[in-house]
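Risk register update: the risk of archive-format incompatibility is retired. Evidence:
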Amino acid sequence: MNLIKFFVCGALIFPLAASAKVTLPQFFTDSMVVQQKAEITIPGKAKKGATVKITPSWSGETVKAKADKNGKFSAKLTTPDAGGPYSITFDDGQKLTLNDVMAGEVWFCSGQSNMEMPVDGWGKVMDYRREVAEANSPNLRLLQIKKATSYSPQEDAEVNMGGWRSATPKSVPEFSSIGYFFGRQLNNELDIPIGIIDCTWGGTPVEAWSSYELLNSLGEFGPELQKIEDNNYDASALLAAYEQQMEEWDKMVIPQNVDFEETSAKWATMPVPGVWEDSVLPAFDGIVWMRKTFDVPAADAGKAAMLNLACIDDEDITYLNGQKVGAISGYNVERSYEIPAGALKAGENTVLVRVLDTGGGGGIYGNADDVSLVIDGTPISLAGDWEYTVASDFGSFPPRPVSPLSSSYPTVLYNAMMHPVTVMPVAGVLWYQGCANVGRDEQYSKVFKGMIEDWRKDWNNPELPFYFVQLAGYLQPKRFQPNSEWAALRQAQANALTLNNTGMAVAIDLGNPDDIHPKNKQEVARRLAAMALNDRYGKKQPCRAPEVKSTKVDGRYVRLTFNEPVTMYGGGQGFVIKGKDGEWAVAYGRQLSPTEIEVSSDEVASPVELRYDWADYPEGNLRSLSGLPVAPFKTK
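Archived output:
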């Protein structure tokens, strides 16, 4: 791919129209939904100096706009109450007409893979076949922004499916499942046209969705922002500078040769599958050699085979008996490597994996059945204890440079995918993201809150509703994990609730310890829709779980008072308490009244801090009367 073409700096050229001089951004198409009772900005291009007449059929009134010396024009239209279909005609001597335009409620969905996760496609959510087959909502319209990056804000964004499409078995399979299910519920309950914009990219951090101005004002990601400026927003120059940095960094942190005989005394064991930060290497980022020895029957020696290593966080180079068989980058990508005929030998064989982890997790993780060598359809399990030795600890080196080609580079998704669409008013924003920022909770808290306010400025709506999903439970269940990075990131998300018109859909109970992409997206969407229906549309209903209103320490007990009744299924679980000695202990809750719970631990006489559901995959059981889970929280 030509990098200069991929990373366009400056305005994207609007697509040419076959029958008119007027051209529009790609997200203005037939079948679109415009936000009702709002002012929409329509930018476009026409012949230099031409007068463009814009006439919406809902009013019949013509608005005129003159194209400047570059052929650019912009017009504002006031949209009607929900209804349609309408048309919008553009006339500069030749006519261009948008047909089947509806007025209704438009919601913008963004974030990483759990928001991107399609109904079918790679996602395959719960009951996906039935959901696709039954998709038939003519007044639910879907727009999917195409993945793209840019170092400067764009005027247009590319789209998939040719633009806006009604929800049908053809348009739904590859669309955001949460976006679709949310829109369907609103469409059913409000009985008006609903537009959903899917603007997502899996594996991406919050900084990629944030503007240069915001990150610069917060003092975050200064080196990356400076590189953009120093290289004049030029992709080839940025890439050259990055490659030089990576060469220097690799020489510094990656051992070029490892003498395994010399390090034999340093080999220890770790469980596989499982991320090493949950077992033998807490808070470790770096390079680890992992190996597993196994026996192959003489009858299978020399046969071709398939080596399956579940998922590896983040990068691997894999060898079998000293022969390289594969290398993949991506923490959520399953590894399956073909073993050529002749590589396996009778008796003892060794798989050796160099794992490079840049943040969070680390190691070989997933299902035990997916860690195996398969010969003629018969698996040899490789799950269990593996030997390992640390080759490089990144904690003692400068941070790894971020590739400017990456969708994770600061500002690039904001510029290319989000910013262009803000000419279209929306009713609100749905956001599901955070996995890519685990381990950087303090930074996330600051940037996420800033991003919400910055997006509101872009849409010129300081009260724009912004509803987000708190990270679901993930990784192996643990009752006692007071230093969980996933829990800290969830708290960083919850910190944004101090902003007006925000809401958090708690999904802690919907996770899967073995799957970062839990399948029940219908319930996630229902919880988001409940907040929107309650807050914006006046359909009062339970939509938020109880929150702690006050905390009181009485001897060895911590009394929690909630703002509304809570229920516990069995004894109060999910609590840990810290004593004056700084040590944490598992604690249990006892319900005193509908709104009060008393928590204590036999191991702590004088508690100073309490945390609830503070683990990667916690098992707390506090609920609202309507069944919504109480969000993880801490008292300090």
